[in-house]
Design a protein that fits this description.
It is built from two helices and 19 strands. It is mainly β and 229 residues long.
């Protein structure tokens, strides 16, 4: 008797199962990956991702985070009603980045099928001023020895650049430029000299050159070597 009653209850509940299952939010987005191509360092890349709630219950975005502090996401709404559309704007600041970049944004939702949604922004960040080499390694230097290195600075942008007075972070370094105005495509030569006064240890520092470019206010070139008696 009890088994028959249980069976009848189960049969009566079955029509409600699809209905309960349908009362869920569903995150839906057409494009979750954005390729911004090639930009110059210092530019800010902005992308707006549009998504909708294709489910039958309110969609909640519990949390948003990015893989890097350089990428700031802004959400238009934390709760999206069924059928409604919302946006998330992502801004990637390319300052101090170069080469191929991939930045990821994570959305934590109450969609049981997509609890974590990933959005990506990727592309190449090119230097306004290309440095060849990108850093100076003097290798092993004897104390009191003079070593020189030449660095080529090339303006890869579309506007002329002005280079300011050179700042050195280490007293044993000296540097000179053969040109301070760089037209698009033009090249200047930076001559760097190291004369270590210490007996031994690491020689490390930066050559800092101010520029008039708003996206790249200064050029930083690392210098290092090992000093021996």
């Amino acid at each position: 008797m009890l088994s028959r009653v249980f069976l009848m209850c189960l049969i009566l509940m079955l029509p409600w199962v699809p209905l309960v299952a349908a009362q869920e939010p569903r995150f839906e987005i057409e494009v979750s990956d954005f390729d911004f191509g090639t930009v110059f360092e210092g530019e800010k890349v902005t992308r707006t991702f549009r998504f909708r709630n294709a489910g039958q219950a309110p969609l909640t975005i519990d949390r948003v985070r990015s893989s890097c502090g350089c990428t700031v996401p802004r959400l238009s709404a934390e709760v999206v009603a069924p059928g409604d559309v919302a946006e998330i704007e992502a801004v990637f600041d390319t300052s101090r980045f170069r080469g191929r970049q991939v930045k990821t944004i994570y959305l934590y939702t109450n969609d049981p099928r997509q609890e974590v949604v990933q959005l990506t922004m990727q592309g190449v960040v090119a230097q306004i001023i290309e440095t060849d080499p990108a850093r100076i390694d003097f290798g092993v230097i004897r104390s009191g020895e003079v070593k020189e290195a030449l660095v080529s600075l090339r303006n890869q942008g579309k506007e002329s650049l002005s280079l300011g007075e050179i700042n050195l972070s280490h007293p044993d370094l000296k540097a000179t430029l053969d040109a301070r105005q760089l037209a698009p495509g033009a090249t200047a030569t930076l001559r760097v000299t190291a004369v270590p006064t210490q007996e031994r240890g690491r020689l490390s520092g930066y050559i800092i050159i101010p520029t008039n470019h708003s996206g790249v206010p200064e050029l930083r070139l690392p210098v290092f070597g090992t000093v021996t008696p």
